[in-house]
Structure formats: structure tokens, C-alpha cells
Design a protein that fits this description.
The complex is a heterodimer of chains A (about 375) and B (about 650).
Chain A lengths: L22 H21 L8 H20 L2 H25 L1 E3 L2 E6 L4 E2 L1 H19 L8 H19 L4 H18 L3 H20 L10 H11 L8 H13 L27 H33 L4 H25 L17 H19 L7
Antiparallel strand pairs in A: 1-2, 2-3
Chain B lengths: L8 H35 L1 H10 L1 E7 L6 E2 L5 E14 H4 L2 H11 L4 H13 L5 E5 L4 H9 L7 E10 L7 H4 L1 E4 L2 H6 L13 E5 H5 L1 H5 E2 L1 E7 L5 E8 L2 E2 L3 E3 L3 H11 L4 E7 L5 E7 L4 H6 L3 H9 L8 H4 L9 H10 L9 E3 L2 E4 L2 E4 L7 E3 L1 H6 L3 H11 L1 H10 L21 H8 L5 H8 L9 H13 L8 E4 L2 E2 L12 H16 L18 E7 L6 H6 L14 E8 L6 E7 L5 H17 L14 H12 L4 H7 L3
Parallel strand pairs in B: 2-12
Antiparallel strand pairs in B: 1-9, 2-3, 3-4, 3-5, 6-7, 8-11, 9-10, 12-19, 13-14, 13-23, 15-18, 16-17, 19-20, 21-22, 22-23
Helix pairs in contact in B: 11-24, 15-17, 15-18, 17-20
The chains are: A mainly alpha (about 375), B alpha+beta (about 650).
């Protein structure tokens, strides 16, 4: 029987849907969040306040949000993709105009009960709109220049607005996630080769012409790039954090110093020990075994998402799930690379572990969408 | 119910293939992360554990030394001297309270200071040193060093502190530095990391604040390894900061100190300016205060005394004070008329002591009148009616335009705080601000520098310099930065008729040197040094009709706040002008009686570059001047310092 002959009848309805959730994925998310609670409890010096308790409440909220989103049919979400994306752009504009200034950058809007970071939301809605776009677009058109240009514009709009905040880290993540979506959707590889080639060419030109009279950037801009590439040249800022972070990680050894026994991360060497640098605490207290386990948990989450996506015959569902998995991957990959001194320090938290409400809720919302796709996937009749 | 759209088989295969590629890339990256983890945590674990156990790496900022400030001849005006202080680093101290307890047994700590330091410590990063005591003596310092084992995290530090050797003489020009406050940080966008150093000093007012960036320099940093007790084991590397730039002011310290001493006891200000280069040789304002008090943090009692003093010592009257220019403005009115061709060669006006304009009677200061007066006589004897007559003919637009050409109503660009713009009124201005239309009476008032007109002593000095040179000379305060001469704007020719300017200068000469001139009592008799000037006495109150009938009340009989301001402007030498002087004595009384003698003393001091010989004064003044010179000699600190320590 061809897979075209499926019937909607076989999609579960009503409260029974809950049985058809991707439960292994849900449990993995809970496990990672659990690691987060443990670490927040530890960095607070063995206390649920000020971080662990609110984080648990938020995760509970996020989990419920995921279930609610999962119960709504995926085709509803597909129809909402355009509205959601437009809404996100409006919110980004709102931040530009009325946003509060946090740490020198305009990032969030105060909604009263929580602070909303529209740039977080953009990560999900961008994936949604791109998935909906490639779902709608007949397959044979997707590599034609005009139909390639449209998603490029869709990606660059939020990227440009986030860049203006200024939030370089998030805009790079958005760019990577959008590009990844286009790649997965099957846009001809020559486009990617061209973009990568042009990028490499531009970077080479920028550095080749340095010091000559055709110099492309101002001197201070070059110095900024230097600091970005080599944090050690800025010992007061990024270099200091990386050195301390590496000492904390390295001193963990195989098995770590034991729960709540970490000294480096607790001694306030790192300013963002409960957010961006929380991985150092885990690595110091539970050693290689603990850190590697978290990495495995993350990898499993990606694996379950990809498996669910590939088993899904609905193109929107499949692309959406892959996009969400890619986003999640970028999140933890960038954070871990940064903490381990493989990448420059950009403010990206460790997903589900770092303290923070906006990011957590948006992530759970995204996984809710992936769950909805899983629950409402087309099934063959018997 | 909507049906989900189902993919075509071909496309699904493509997506699957691409997803597999991307998944592979992700998996490879996860593998790389795992490998890195293994490298850091397993292979290099021993090395990092050693680093963690035994040493810690700290960053210490090295504050740059602030640029020093000198006068035009290299006399130091603002210096940095070493000062010893005791700091505590929170992460090394452990129980800070206990450490402070121990410390207080050795050194007397100010409880307020400790409380402030504790609060600061809570706010700051744990590795930043927080100052607990400043200006610590050598004995206390050595006691702390000897007892170091009992005081973890406590280190004596040597730092640089700002000192103003000539103290109060430069309070208004230089301003002062003080520790960065939260308010300062809020005002600055993206503040320099240096400003986060506790107690770091930045300029608060005056030149120190206006040229802050240049004076501050750039921070250096050193990375140090400290052991578990917080002691520095070794320095890993060091980036030296860039010290702030030294600078030289155009001020002549010797003259400045003299002027400041001469004004002592009055609420007054004075400016001495080079008429050719625009260099400001002295900017004085009295009474003054000791800026060194502010550097250390002034006590609230001292501060209250300064703010409640009715002579306003904190105000920099020479540049931020504005006054009706009074009769010193008559040169402007006259120039406006001359340039407009409204005064014939032998034209005279009859002054009966008053003049009726638009149904209102305007009085001359001399109620008996001056009789027939020409331009020179009118300025010499300061006849008001002559200028009322000119004003009605010329109109306010031309008078205001002329005033602006002489730098009145213009915020001169010098790096001091709150440089005043003054006020040169126009018809539009009055409508906008007072919502009234301009009446001819306003023009009449303006012609003798009363009414809405306001000017600062700096502006009056610039005006006089421009009269003397005929060029639009601009004031300059910074002579050199890092030894590099700063541009001076000697000004382009103002394009005035040289004959007219010469007439004005001759009239100003008559004011001082003609037997009937208002400032004849303040003449200089040394021929090469003769000065030309103009007196001004400006009312700060309206004289009522009843008062006028009862006879004019003498200034001395009025309460201080209601007495007239005394003004005098002059340039000298008359034949070849080099300096312009403006003196304003608040509520001093008459310009001729109070301001002119001060201006003469200052002029002579400037021209002789030191104490003038008594022979320059008229014979009958010499006895009084001699006593005065003796008294002032004792009040000038510069004589001692200039000789001993030149940088």
C-alpha cells in the first residue's frame, strides 16, 4: 500500500493523544532540566533560592505549555506560521522602540509578569515560517533563484533586527538555523557552496588588504576582530573568563570533586556562573563522566527529534522537527564550545540548564510543536 | 478536519538524505566536544588541578597616572603625589568582618569609611581591591605589613593622589577631581573599565572635567598568580597603561596669584587676556575655596559653609557670572552708530540730565546734566543721554549685531564649567520669552548696558581685546598638550573702519587720562604703560520716583545685595596694546571708585610681569599702594613655589 493512502482517521483524537506523545523525548527533556536544578542548587551554595526554585516552577510551566501545544493539531500551527512570524517581527520592532536596556543592549519587553525576549521567539517562528514555506512550495521550484530569494529575505529580516539590538550571538544562531532549514529542505547545494565561497573570499579580502591603502575596515574594527578571534589579547574581558573556565573544567578530572565540592566555579571567578557558565560547575563537580553524560543526553534529544522527523510523512512536520532539533543543537554546541575555549565568548546559555525564563519557555514551546507533529503524523490505515 | 499534506516520495528521500548529512555534521561536532572534554578533563586534568589548588590567576587593573597641569611657564598647578592606602580583596579575605576587626586594632579606621567600603565591596567583583583607609601614615603602613599573616586579603597600596599646590588660586579654573560616583557612571555611556575601579578619581568640574579624556590616559593591566591566601606569587604578564597627557594652561601663575590676592575680600572676578593671541593670562574669582578639600571628600560642615556663604565662593564668577554691562557697553552703542555713519565729525548732543523718549523720562546719572557733549566727552564723563539719543537713531538690531561681533551673547569656547552665554536681546527674543513686543524704551536701556543685557567678565575682556586689536580674537586656555602647542585663534580682522576704532580707543584713553575722565583717579603715569578703559556702574534695583525726589541714596547706605555692581574694562599699553582686563566687583558700588583701581593694579602687575615700581602710580597714591603691595606680597603662594620646583 502506498503511503499516499493514509487516512486522518488513524490520527488519535481527544485525551487519548497524550498516549501518543513522544514520551522518550519528554523524559529526556525532564532529565536535562533535572541536571539544571541540581547545578543551580549547587552554585547557590546548597540553596533552592535564588535560582533553583524559580527554575523548577518555570520548567513545570514549560512542560504544561509543551503538552498544550502538543494537543493542538499540527495543521493549526502550520496555518499560524505566518501570523507568528509577523508577530515576532512586530515584537522585535517593539524592542527597538520601547525595549528596556539590559546589559547595554535592548533585548526584552517587559510584559509585567515576565520579560519577553522576542529574539528567542524568533528562533522558533523563523523555523515555522520556513517549514510552512517549503511545505507550500512545489518541490521542483525550490532551487529557482526567485524562490530561493524569498526564504533568504525571511531569514535576514529578523537577523538584521536582532543585530541592531545588538545581539551578535543570537543573530548568528538565527542565520545558522535558517541556512540549515534551507539545506534540509533540499535547496540545491550550489547555493550553499556559493555563499560559503563568497564568505571565505570576503574574509580573506578583509585580512589581505589590512594595512594597505585598500583597507576595507577601520583600524579599530580590525582590533575588535582581533579580540574576538583571540580572547587572550583582551585579558580583562573574554580572556579572563576563558582561562578561569578552563581551570574549572580541567580540575574536575574523571569523576569530579563531588556534588557541591567545586571550588573554582563557586569562588565567583566567573560572573555568569548561574547562566552562561553553568557548565563549568557541572564539569568541575561531576568531572568528565558528568559532563559527558550531559552531552549524551543532548545528543539523544537530537537523535529522537531527527528520528521522529524522518518517520513523519508530512513535509511541514518533518521540516519543523528538524529545524527545532537544529536550533537546540546550535544552542548547546555554541555554549559548550565557548566554555571549553573553542569559540569566542558570546552570550548563549546552556539550553534547559542555565537559569532563565524566556529561553526555557520558548524551548518548551518549540518541543511542544515537535510533539504535536509527532502526535498528528499521518498514519497508514490497517 | 484538515488533512495534513503528504510529501512526494522523491522529495521525502531528498529531505531524508539532507537530514542525514546535517545529522552527521551535528554528531561529528558532538564528538569533537566530547574529545575536547576528554582533553581538558582527563589528559590535562593534573595540570589544571594544580593551577586550581595552588594558584589562581587574577587580573589587576593598573590605573594610569593622570596628566599634570602647568601654567604657561611650567609652574605646576595640578600634580600627582604618592599616597598610601589600605585595601582589602574580598575573595582573599574570607571573613571580611573579622579581618576588618583585626585591622581596626592596628590602624584607626573611620567607621563611616568602613561602612561605605563594606557596601562598595558587596557591589563589586570579589577580586577587586576595596579601599578601607586612605592617606595612611608610614607607621600605620608598616604595622599592617608586619602583621600581614593575621590579615588575609589586606594589602597596603601606593597610589597617586591629585594635589593642587596653589590650592584656592585655581579652584575655579582647574576645578577638582573626585572619586567616580554612581551618578557619574549613569551619565557616561559605555564607561571605561577604569571608572569601575573603586575610588578612581575623575574630573568633576572645570578643566579637570572638561578635558577628562585627555588627562585620564588608558588603563594597563597585569595578570598575577596568587596563592590560596591571596598573596601575589608572581606576575604573569603586564600591559602598561598609557599615562594621561600633561598640559599647560595659558594662565600665568604669578599673575593669577596676584589677581586672586588683589580680589580677596570682595565678591569679585577679573580676567586678563592677551589682545593679540587671545591667551587668558588670569581668570580669577573671589572668594574662592581650596579644591584639595574636594579631592579627599569634603566634610558636610565645610561644604555647608561654602554653599551658604552669600558671596558664593563655589561660583566661577569670571566665566559663569553674568551682569548688566552698564556703561562698559557704551563703546558698542557708539561703534554701532559710527559704523552706520550716524555720528558726524563734530556732532554734539545737549544733555539736560534727562531725555524724553516715547512719553517716558530717562535720566542721566548726573541729574544736573552734562551740557553739550561730543563722542569723546560723552564716553569720558559717561553721559547717558548722548547714548539714549544714539540708540533711538540706530535701533536695537544694529546694536545687538555689533555686540555679537564683539563676542557678547556668545558662549566662548574654553574648557571651563558652565561658561555663560550672556544675553544680547532682540525683538524676537523678547516676544518669545516675555511674550511682549519690543518698545523703544528697551533700546534706550540697552544703549547704556542696562535692561535685558547680560555679559560675563570673560565676554567683557574679549570685547575690550577686540576693540584694542580690531581683530575677532578668541580666548584660549590650553597652551600645550603633551608639549604640543595648541592652535590659537588670533582672529581675522573684524572689518571695522580703523578710524572709528581709533576714535573709540582715544575716547577710552580720555576716560582714564583726561582730568575730567571718570577713571582719572586710576591713571598710570608711566608713559609706556598708559591704559585706556571704561567704567561701569550697574543698578541691580529700580530707583523709585520717591527715592529720586528724596535725593539719591548713597550706595554705602544700602544693604549689600542692593548695591550697584562695579565694572571696569581696559586695555594697555595704549600705544601698543598687549593686554585686556575686565574687572567686576559684585555690589561693589561705583565702577570708577571700586573696579578701576583694581584693574590698574592688575594691569601694572601684568605689564611689569611682577610687582610694578611705585613710580608708575600718581604721586598721591604711592603711600597707599606701598602698604597694599606689602600686604599682598604675603598672600601670594606662587613666589615660593615657582622658584623651588619647576617641572
Amino acid at each position: 500500500m502506498s503511503y499516499l493512502e493514509y487516512t486522518v482517521k488513524h490520527v488519535p483524537t481527544g485525551p487519548r493523544k497524550i498516549l501518543f506523545l513522544n514520551w522518550p523525548l519528554a523524559l529526556l527533556l525532564a532529565a536535562v532540566a533535572g541536571v539544571g536544578f541540581l547545578m543551580l542548587y549547587s552554585v547557590a551554595g546548597g540553596s533552592f533560592s535564588p535560582w533553583a526554585e524559580p527554575q523548577m516552577k518555570r520548567f513545570a510551566m514549560g512542560f504544561v505549555l509543551m503538552l498544550i501545544v502538543a494537543m493542538v493539531p499540527i495543521w493549526f500551527w502550520r496555518n499560524m506560521a505566518g501570523v507568528a512570524f509577523a508577530g515576532t517581527l512586530l515584537l522585535l520592532l517593539g524592542v527597538e522602540l520601547f525595549g528596556s536596556v539590559g546589559k547595554g543592549a535592548q533585548r526584552w519587553i517587559d510584559l509585567g509578569f515576565m520579560r519577553l525576549q522576542p529574539s528567542e521567539l524568533a528562533k522558533v517562528t523563523l523555523v515555522m515560517i520556513l517549514a510552512a514555506y517549503y511545505d507550500w512550495l512545489p518541490s521542483h521550484k525550490k532551487s529557482r533563484p526567485f524562490w530561493v530569494l524569498i526564504p533568504v529575505v525571511l531569514i535576514l529580516l529578523p537577523v538584521a533586527m536582532v543585530l541592531r539590538q545588538p545581539d551578535l550571538g543570537t543573530s548568528i544562531l538565527l542565520l545558522a538555523a535558517g541556512g540549515g532549514m534551507m539545506f534540509v529542505a533540499g535547496v540545491h547545494w550550489a547555493y550553499f557552496a556559493a555563499v560559503i565561497g563568497a564568505g571565505v573570499g570576503l574574509i580573506t579580502a578583509v585580512f589581505q588588504f589590512r594595512g594597505t591603502e585598500w583597507q576595507l575596515l577601520k583600524d579599530y574594527q580590525y582590533r575588535r576582530i582581533d579580540t574576538f578571534l583571540d580572547p587572550a589579547s583582551d585579558p580583562l574581558g573574554a580572556g579572563y573568563h576563558i582561562t578561569q573556565s578552563k581551570i574549572a573544567l580541567g580540575s574536575g578530572g574523571w569523576t569530579g570533586r563531588g556534588f557541591m565540592q567545586g571550588t573554582q566555579s563557586r569562588l565567583n571567578f566567573l560572573p555568569e556562573k548561574h547562566t552562561d557558565f553553568i557548565f563549568t560547575t557541572l564539569a568541575e563537580e561531576f568531572g568528565f563522566i558528568g559532563a559527558f553524560s550531559l552531552l549524551v543526553l543532548y545528543a539523544l534529544i537530537i537523535l529522537f527529534c531527527v528520528a521522529s522527523a524522518l518517520a513523519n510523512k508530512d513535509r511541514f512536520s518533518s521540516l519543523l522537527t528538524l529545524g527545532i532539533a537544529l536550533n537546540f543543537f546550535l544552542f548547546f554546541a555554541v555554549n559548550m564550545s565557548m566554555v571549553m575555549g573553542l569559540a569566542p565568548v558570546v552570550g548563549v546559555p546552556l539550553p534547559l540548564v542555565s537559569y532563565g525564563g524566556s529561553a526555557m519557555l520558548v524551548l518548551m514551546l518549540a518541543f511542544g510543536l515537535a510533539q504535536s507533529a509527532h502526535v498528528h503524523r499521518p498514519r497508514h490505515g490497517h | 478536519m484538515k488533512r495534513p499534506r503528504v510529501d512526494t516520495e522523491a522529495n521525502h528521500r531528498l529531505v531524508t538524505r539532507r537530514a542525514a548529512i546535517l545529522g552527521g555534521v551535528q554528531l561529528a561536532f558532538v564528538g569533537a566536544l566530547g574529545a575536547r572534554m576528554q582533553f581538558l578533563q582527563v589528559d590535562q586534568a593534573d595540570q589544571f588541578r594544580l593551577l586550581a589548588e595552588e594558584n589562581r590567576i587574577n587580573i589587576r587593573l593598573i590605573p594610569p597616572s593622570r596628566g599634570e597641569i602647568f601654567d604657561r611657564n611650567g609652574v605646576p598647578l595640578a600634580r600627582n603625589v604618592p599616597s598610601y592606602r589600605i585595601v582589602i580583596v574580598r575573595e582573599d579575605a574570607g571573613e571580611v568582618e573579622d579581618v576588618v576587626q583585626n585591622l581596626s586594632k592596628l590602624v584607626s579606621l573611620d567607621p563611616d569609611e568602613v561602612e561605605r567600603a563594606m557596601a562598595e565591596m558587596k557591589r563589586s567583583a570579589p577580586f577587586l581591591p576595596i579601599t578601607f583607609a586612605e592617606e595612611v601614615s608610614w607607621e600605620d603602613l608598616s604595622r599592617v605589613s608586619v602583621n600581614a599573616p593575621a590579615l588575609p586579603g589586606v594589602t597596603p597600596e601606593v597610589g597617586l593622589s591629585r594635589v593642587y599646590p596653589l590650592g584656592s588660586d585655581y579652584a575655579h579654573v582647574l576645578g577638582y577631581v573626585g572619586p567616580v560616583s554612581d551618578y557619574d557612571l549613569e551619565r557616561i555611556e559605555d564607561p571605561d573599565q577604569l571608572l569601575r575601579i573603586p575610588r578612581f578619581q575623575i574630573g568633576k568640574v572645570g578643566v579637570e572635567a572638561k578635558i577628562e579624556e585627555t588627562l585620564r590616559g588608558k588603563a594597563g593591566a597585569r595578570r598575577v598568580e596568587v596563592n590560596a591566601a591571596g598573596r601575589v606569587m608572581r606576575e604573569l604578564d603586564r600591559q602598561n597603561g598609557i599615562p594621561g597627557s600633561d598640559m599647560q594652561l595659558t594662565i600665568d601663575a604669578k599673575l593669577q596669584s596676584y589677581v586672586q590676592a588683589r580680589l580677596n575680600g570682595e565678591s569679585a572676578s577679573a580676567i586678563v587676556m592677551d589682545v593679540q593671541s587671545g591667551d587668558l593670562l588670569a581668570i580669577a574669582s573671589a572668594p574662592t575655596f581650596d579644591p584639595n578639600l574636594f579631592v579627599r571628600g569634603i566634610s558636610s560642615r565645610d561644604y555647608k559653609a561654602l554653599t551658604e556663604n552669600k558671596y558664593r565662593p563655589l561660583a566661577s564668577k569670571s566665566v559663569q557670572g553674568t551682569y548688566p554691562p552698564g556703561s562698559t557697553f557704551k563703546m558698542i552703542t557708539a561703534m554701532a552708530a559710527l559704523e552706520d555713519g550716524l555720528i558726524g565729525p563734530d556732532e554734539t548732543v545737549y544733555c539736560p540730565g534727562h531725555m524724553e523718549v516715547a512719553g517716558r523720562r530717562f535720566h542721566c546719572w548726573k541729574s544736573a546734566g552734562h551740557g553739550w557733549v561730543d563722542l569723546e566727552t560723552s564716553l569720558k564723563r559717561s553721559c547717558d543721554v548722548y547714548y539714549y539719543d544714539l540708540a533711538v537713531k540706530v535701533g536695537i538690531e544694529k546694536i545687538t549685531a555689533m555686540a555679537n561681533r564683539f563676542g557678547l551673547g556668545e558662549r566662548h569656547d574654553i574648557p571651563m564649567s558652565a561658561v555663560a552665554k550672556g544675553l544680547t536681546p532682540t525683538k524676537d527674543w523678547k516676544r518669545r520669552v516675555h511674550d511682549q513686543s519690543w518698545v523703544v524704551g528697551d533700546t534706550v536701556n540697552a544703549s547704556i548696558g542696562q535692561g535685558f543685557l547680560l555679559a560675563s567678565p570673560l565676554q567683557l575682556a574679549v570685547m575690550t581685546a577686540r576693540l584694542a586689536s580690531g581683530k575677532a580674537v578668541k580666548p584660549r586656555l590650553i597652551k600645550t598638550i603633551d608639549g604640543i602647542e595648541q592652535p590659537s585663534d588670533a582672529g581675522t580682522d573684524m572689518g571695522m573702519n580703523e578710524n572709528n576704532l581709533r576714535k573709540m580707543r582715544r575716547a577710552m584713553y580720555a576716560v582714564v587720562n583726561d582730568r575730567r575722565g571718570t577713571a582719572y583717579g586710576s591713571r598710570i603715569i608711566e608713559d609706556a604703560m598708559r591704559m585706556a578703559g571704561k567704567t561701569g556702574t550697574t543698578q541691580v534695583r529700580n530707583i523709585s520716583a520717591a527715592e529720586r525726589r528724596a535725593g539719591v541714596i548713597r550706595n554705602e547706605d544700602l544693604p549689600w545685595e542692593r548695591r550697584d555692581h562695579a565694572l571696569f574694562v581696559n586695555f594697555a599699553p595704549y600705544d601698543n596694546p598687549t593686554i585686556a582686563v575686565a574687572v567686576v566687583v559684585e555690589h561693589g558700588g561705583g565702577g570708577a571708585k571700586v573696579a578701576a583701581p583694581i584693574a590698574r593694579d592688575i594691569t601694572l602687575q601684568a605689564l611689569y610681569e611682577g610687582e610694578p615700581p611705585l613710580e608708575a602710580y600718581p604721586t598721591k597714591d604711592r603711600g597707599r599702594i606701598e602698604t597694599q603691595q606689602q600686604m599682598l606680597r604675603g598672600m601670594q603662594p606662587v613666589a615660593n613655589i615657582a622658584g623651588s620646583d619647576q617641572a
